[in-house]
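User: UPF0102 protein H7J73_21945. Structure?
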Amino acid sequence: MTSEPALTRVELGALGEQLAVEHLLAQGLQIVDRNWRCRYGELDIVAADTSSRTAVFVEVKTRTGDGFGGLAYAVPPQKVRRLRRLTSLWLAGQDRRWATVRLDVIGVRIGRCRTPELTHVQGVG
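Assistant: Predicted structure:
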């Protein structure tokens, strides 16, 4: 019996982000930006809900299990503050105006031989 090699951390993260993008598209959102970086950090996904003119900033957390406490512990308050700062910087560089802005977290759990599980928490910050 051969098993597939384990994914590296980078590969695991990329797979989680791709699954999150597919989930957001299925929810009717448009992807505006991915892996936007500046000197203060990175935004994983920026999506748009065009019907409500909402900019949705999505932090993706990919895990292979619940060993680190699950999604509730993945984005502590200091991370939310940093993400808010990044969203402000991203918005400042845009010509488009948004009615509202939302920060979401999508948790992706990829276990062995199982379909990935996604948890989408809206409005965390």
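Residues 97 and 125 are 20 Å apart (CA to CA). The chain has one domain: 9-121.
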